[in-house]
Amino acid sequence: MVGASAAGLAAAETLRREGYDGTLTLVGDEPQAPYDRPPLSKQVLAAQWQPARLALRPPADLAALDLDLRLGVAATGLELTERTVRLADGTEVPYDGLIVATGVRPRRLPGAGAHVLRTLDDALVLRDRLGPGVRLVVVGAGFLGAEAAAVAWRLGAKVTLLEPAAVPLAHAVGAEVGALLARAHVERGVDLRCGVTASEVTEDGVRLADGELVESDEVLVAVGSQPNTEWLEGSGLAVGDGVVCDEYCEAARNVYAAGDVARWHNPLFGTSMRIEHRTNAAEQGMAAARNLLRPDTRKPFAPVPYFWSDQYDMKIQAYGYLRGHDEVAVVDGDLAEGRFVAAYRTGGGLSGALAVGMPPRVLRVWRQAIAAGAAWGEAVRTDATVAGA
Amino acid sequence: MKVELEADKCVASGQCVLAAMDVFDQDDDGIAILLEDEPAPELLDDVKEAIAVCPAAAIRLVEQ
What we know:
The complex is a heterodimer.
Chain A: H1 6-17, E1 25-28, H2 59-64, E2 68-71, E3 75-79, E4 84-87, E5 92-94, E6 98-100, E7 104-106, H3 120-129, E8 135-139, H4 143-154, E9 158-163, H5 170-173, H6 175-187, E10 191-194, E11 198-202, E12 205-208, E13 213-215, E14 218-221, E15 225-227, E16 243-244, E17 250-252, E18 255-257, E19 262-266, E20 271-273, H7 278-293, E21 306-311, E22 314-320, E23 327-334, E24 339-346, E25 349-356, H8 360-371, H9 376-379, E26 385-386
Parallel strand pairs in A: 1-2, 6-18, 8-9, 8-14, 9-10, 16-19
Antiparallel strand pairs in A: 3-4, 4-5, 7-15, 11-12, 12-13, 17-18, 19-20, 21-22, 22-25, 23-24, 23-26, 24-25
Helix pairs in contact in A: 1-7
Chain B: E1 2-5, H1 15-19, E2 24-26, E3 32-34, H2 44-53, E4 59-62
Antiparallel strand pairs in B: 1-4, 2-3
């Protein structure tokens, strides 16, 4: 396994659990044992949790996996025909099977001095700079930027949130839900500025495309991620916004990919996707490991993606593949009250459901309908409030 | 084997319920509840699946 975060660890554990007792090498470029990332923009940034709480497994459980653990060393190359992975320390690791789980890294803006939020170190550095009265500019009002803005606001920072789109997250969750999430910032006094493009980070803040300087003490750039695939250049693996895999998560013979870096064909939605969600990392790591270990009984990886986000007092949860949806309908609760379920239509099918403030069993029914490939007309009554797309 | 659940780490994803509905449930806020902390041997595979898919690493199986 190359990549020692959630997907790589899940693959390693699955291989052991399913009876593989050979050499198992886990390579990771960060020095820490596998740790959890979602709390970085939540409890860690809020200084509620110490880093030790993020360990994905206690040391004893990790030791029980009997891994050849190579931490703090990045993979730099892959020889498919020789079946070896080259590492930054000059060593080569031979393999019979390979799982690529090298994840993503944050996109950045021109200019120096801005924070990003991907690793534990990133989170600790930003955490130590936040506090009452600190002027923070967050570039990008996606899920990560919104969570960080919410935490910084709670810590008493003066937060400005810059977003190029007219409505934050509209492409992901639809304009109406995006507007609700935007309102949560505005109601609390976060200065949300939509339709503005940040072009550069300067010593004094963020320079916008129209020349205006948004002054700040700290800048967090949260404008999306790019897959860590450079080390695969020239290897022969197909790379195109991620490692390109088939529906089994296989990229080449005995080479699989999992987690944020993997682009695979999800037969449930009939489309190629790359999912940067925590639950997908584990599920895909497990699926890739099983298919690698037992090719004769391998199964297509056809999950219903799931994500959650904590912003202020809201927990947002969603199942499905919402991107590119054609229509949104509020099917339960009330959007204005911030307590609702929204269903998403793509083509003629139910492609997703998103809930805020609803009990879990309500959303579970929608997950089942998505997993069953329900048609929109079957799943959504025609009297539902249609929000349009 | 005994199941341990750190409820304050739980993120209410419900992944454990999908994997092992005889062992886990969720309260109205979505936080996981342990229905059976010493599950029967035939449920252990489901519990191990729940541990693997839990996005908060909030579940452990410990030797008694």
